[in-house]
Amino acid sequence: MCTRYISPEQREIEAFWRIDRRSNQRKDWENLLTVFPLSLASFIRRADEVEYARELVVGQWGMIPPWSKTNVPLTAQGKRLSTVNARSERMAKAPTYKEAWARGKRCIIPAASFDESNWETGKNVWWRFRRADGAPWGLAGLWNAWIDKETGEVWDNYTMLTLNADSHPLMGRMHKPDPKLPPDQQDKRSVIPLAVHDFDRWLTCTVEEAKEMLQVPGVELFNAGPVDAEVQEV
Questions:
Q1: Mean pLDDT of 176-202
Q2: Residue 13 and residue 6: Cα distance in Å, rounded?
Q3: Domain boundaries defined on the chain
């Protein structure tokens, strides 16, 4: 699971992704580069009017379930939900994500880097992940819109998709292991970086085609290491 990442600056996002338009640039948005759960940050989605036009949106990191009475994600019983990450294996049936997935509400989450926890020393050491080629990540996500019934305000919101990474030589090393489970059944999770040539395809393709794109790339794409040390190429 990813619970913090660094967003590129707006001008960098617009230049790299060749943004056609911006929308919903919220007045309460502070353009924070380090993004935490429930922060407002930028994501990219397909513009409605033109099939291959990209739209830059500011929304909440953390999908808001349709039944939630506040922008803070809650269960129907009022218990807090963690919705910054969505398990891609379950999203088609999960109540919070299934509508967005079925309707093709896919998005790209720009990230200069993202952080994951590593427990190989017996304690948590944060690792930072950048692309080896220096380009920003384009992470696979879903988005939706939630309406505050009291104010009528529309909250765009998004989640990062994750995939099992037990067998991945790098991402399988992240997160705290469960001592009760064997190594191949830990369900270590990874975000899903999209290939640059797949950006438009991810935003516009069918659900079946999108399933084929849910993969974790090889280690050669990553430049990773402990946050407090110089990041070395893997």
A1: 89
A2: 12
A3: 5-226
* Residues 233, 121: Cα–Cα separation, whole Å: 20
pLDDT number for residue 40: 93
Tell me yes or no: is domain 5-226 CATH 3.30.110.170.
Answer: no
161 close to 141: Cβ distance less than 8 angstroms: yes
Q: Give the pLDDT score at 5.
A: 97
Q: Could you please report the per-residue DSSP string of 115-144?
A: EEEE-TTSS-EEEEEEETTSPPEEEEEEEE
Q: DSSP characters for 50-113?
A: STT-EEEEEEEESPPPTT-SSSS-B-TTS-B---SEEETTTTTT-TTTHHHHHTT-EEEEEESE
Residue 112 sits at the vertex; the CA angle it makes with 164 and 224, to the nearest 5 degrees, is: 55
Residues 6+ apart with CB under 8 A from 78: none
Q: Whole-angstrom distance between the N-terminal and C-terminal Cα of the chain?
A: 20
